């Protein structure tokens, strides 16, 4: 899920997302809640670069090292003198994978599908084993089966594959706030982030 702003050459932004009514021009750093000086400075210079050279720029904003943070994507707008700033929360799982989707797409078992989704959402094998009340070796065996059935070589490739599948699916997270994870896996994932 991204939030988009239009930014002018003075770094003033207009928020046109669904959550907020159109606002008057405000400094973009304060509009997005960016209070980290070095990142705000990078954003200012990136906007200037985009407006001058009409090329795309990316910045990672990590207010806390325990999270992935937010991707700030700046690109030229169609209108001269404006840039488009999109904010994407990198800690939110992409798409809305469900075990049923993976079972259908890859002909895997429900347990394998749940393990695949848990890996996709950032859980490690030990956390998955703990939640499922099985040994890590059992989870490793199920992961190997998922790798074989999906045609990928390792967990990184599996995660990439699931990200791409997740992006292709409709985003109806409003109906499933757990991002495809079963509720108990979601709770463990949240505790691991705290």
Task: Provide an overview of this structure.
- The chain is α+β, with helices and mostly antiparallel strands and 194 residues long.
- The chain is 45% helix and 17% strand.
- It is built from eight helices and six strands.
- It has helices spanning 28-31, 37-53, 99-106, 110-120, 125-132, 136-150, 155-168, 183-193, and strands at residues 2-8, 12-15, 26-27, 57-61, 70-76, 82-89.
- It has a six-stranded antiparallel sheet with strand order 3-2-1-6-5-4.
- Strand 4 and strand 5 (70-76) form a beta hairpin.
- Helix 4 (110-120) crosses helix 6 (136-150), helix 4 (110-120) crosses helix 7 and helix 5 (125-132) crosses helix 6.
- The longest helix has 17 residues, at 37-53.
- It is elongated.
- Residues 17-24 and 173-189 have low confidence and may be disordered.
């Amino acid at each position: 899920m991204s939030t988009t702003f239009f930014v002018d050459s003075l770094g003033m932004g207009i928020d046109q997302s669904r959550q907020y009514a159109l606002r008057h021009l405000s400094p973009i750093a304060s509009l997005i809640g960016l209070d980290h000086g070095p990142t705000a400075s990078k954003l200012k210079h990136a906007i200037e670069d985009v407006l001058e050279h009409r090329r795309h720029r990316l910045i990672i904003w990590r207010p806390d090292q325990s999270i992935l943070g937010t991707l700030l994507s700046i690109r030229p707008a169609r209108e001269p003198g404006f840039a488009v700033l999109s904010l994407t929360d990198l800690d939110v799982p992409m798409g809305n994978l469900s075990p049923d989707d993976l079972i259908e797409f890859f002909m895997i078992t429900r347990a394998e599908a749940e393990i695949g989704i848990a890996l996709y959402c950032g859980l490690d094998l030990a956390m998955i084993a703990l939640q499922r009340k099985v040994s890590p070796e059992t989870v490793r065996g199920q992961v190997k089966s998922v790798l074989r059935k999906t045609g990928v070589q390792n967990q990184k490739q599996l995660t990439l594959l699931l990200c791409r599948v997740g992006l292709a699916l409709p985003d109806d997270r409003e109906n499933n706030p757990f991002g495809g994870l079963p509720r108990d896996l979601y709770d463990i994932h949240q505790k691991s982030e705290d």
